[in-house]
Amino acid sequence: MNSKIDGKDLSVTRIIKASPSLVWAAWKEPEQFVKWWAPAPVVTISNKHDFFAGGGFDTTMRLPDGTMMEGGEGCFLEVIENERIVFSDALQGGWRPNEEAFFSAIITLEDHPEGTLYKAIALHKNDEDRQKHAEMGFLDGWSTALTQLAELVENDV
User: Fold this and answer.
1) What is the pTM of this model?
2) 96: how many CB neighbours lie within 10 A of its CB?
């Protein structure tokens, strides 16, 4: 799958000072995943985390005021250990189509002299969806979550 960024995509990249296997574990294990997925003080609740191609992915976010935001079920499309995770909200677990699709994401983990080069790309079907995602706070939100992921795994080094 081509992960080239074009005008309909948004991305964040960071060097994490931990091995790809530690970063992978923070994605794979739901009890680790919920610690970093949403920018604090938002709390992530994992409703489903079937971490394999075709597996379902569903979270709920509890905002500081108690409001619950349902994420809706997505699907892991590709899961290559310590290297690549692709997921989408176009499908749910078992490859069942969802009514609406907003984006798909490609996460890559590459060995780096300092640890792991982590790249996340959010792909959108059109510029309108990309702009909506940007206005929702993609850069701040995904960057903050990535910082939280780095802090979690760097403490395990």
Assistant:
1) 0.92
2) 11
